[in-house]
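re: that complex we talked abt at group meeting.

here r the seqs, copy pasted straight from the sheet so there may be weird spacing, ignore it
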Amino acid sequence: MALLELDSVTRRFGGVVALDSVSLAIGEGEIAGLIGPNGAGKTTAFNVVTRLYAPDGGRLSFAGRDLLRVKPHRIVGLGIARTFQNVELFRRMTVLDNVLVGAHSRTGFGGEKEARAEALETLSYLDLAHLARRPATGLPFGTLKRVELARALVSRPRLLLLDEPAGGLNHEEVEELKGLIRRIRQDFSVTVFLVEHHMALVMSVSDRVHVLNFGRKIAEGTPAEVRENPAVVEAYLGA
Amino acid sequence: MDGQLFAQQVVSGLANGAVYASLALALVLIYRTTHVVNFAQGEMAMFTTFVAWSLNNRMSYWPAFVLTLAFAFVFGAAIERVVIRPVEQASHLTVIMVTIALFVTVNGFVLWVWTPDLRDFPTPFTGEPVVVAGVFFARHEIGIIALTVATVVVLWAFFRFTKLGLAMRAAAIRPEAARLLGVRVGWMLALGWGFAAVLGAIAGMMTAPLRLLDPNMMQPVLIYAFAAAVLGGIASPAGAVIGGFTIGVGINLLATYVDFVTPELELPVAFAVLIGILLFRPAGIFGRVAARRV
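got the structure back, here u go
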């Protein structure tokens, strides 16, 4: 059974159909990529899955549960965590406090010591421990993305949604990210679903790739299959 | 210059300033959580002080004080859930109109229930003046300053060291991200209003013994509190507290040492100074100018 399943999900913004009856399934332990030209509806798909947007039609389920019956603040408890395209960290708070907010989602009331320990442990895993006391503002963009990743990981998700993890990173950082995403799947036994513009990254880390164009799903398959797909080539080259 | 007079005026300015600081902090708290300037903050404070007055007729001071704070907390949180929540997504102007409506409603309600008579309100800080190096200071003034400083420290520790405080900060900064990390953002905003109402209740109960309790008592205080919050940079809690004390002391010293500043002129002169400062520091003393990418 698929871990995450979207069944004919539609979402409109006024006259624009951001998601047009999109169906896709992601299996447990998979690294799945979601690609498509600008405005294809990729981030909208993430926002629907995390319940920030209610879909206008369709169904979505996570581990067999109907996600449409789950409120946004309960999403993390089910085991879904995400990062954001433009980094939505809590400015003015320290790096550690940012990650602590994520840790609290698991420890509930009490357990402050464990929360702190896990936050620090996650920060060291991502080589960020030395920045724990620094405020989240003023750090380089690539570092902020890692902090956000730490904040998502510390909640020990079953499904990790990464919205453009390579955005704004330089060549070396992208290379490093490839290894990191695979390592995270291994070490945290997590399923990864990522939206990405950086083709080389998506194609090299994903087990399966789903392609959106103007809100419609136009292709799905292994990276090799998708690369050869005429509809995908046309969408990207506009030929 | 007479050192004794100067010291006394500074301390009594700090006492007035403590009240402005509490109410300014309430304004900042609400501004940071809901991004609303709450024009009803003073009237809410006045209302809870009337509740304290009624409680004082039935029990001794400190139990009434604590009960009033509890009532203020519930009242503030309820106002957020019932009155502010429905217009949360509306334009700022709409929300401001709602807080002005709240101002008028609360004021009218108090007039209706308690009548406009002036009343005495007790201070818990009684006894002989405190003498330091031959200078006399009123107990009530020392008490207000100590109580305000203690409140500020407790509030700071709450936001800095507790899980709930962290969640409230997260909800105020990035509501969507906080929600996806399991924070119940709506309740955090209601808590913010509750805390603000508690600060207001303290300000009201400390003001009433100085001026007599009446339904319009908090209006000048609110104006000074606005000035303090703006001077501190509207979003800075430390700025609001320092702004409150600065305005309290500044006005007292002006009224004491500048001959043409009579009590009637205190407010305009204070504002002239405020405008002067904002001309040079438009974001307030502690405010930061936000650079926006365009």
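couple things i noticed - Chain B has eleven helices and two strands. Chain B touches chain A at residues 163, 166-167, 169-170, 173-174, 176-185 (CB under 8 Å).
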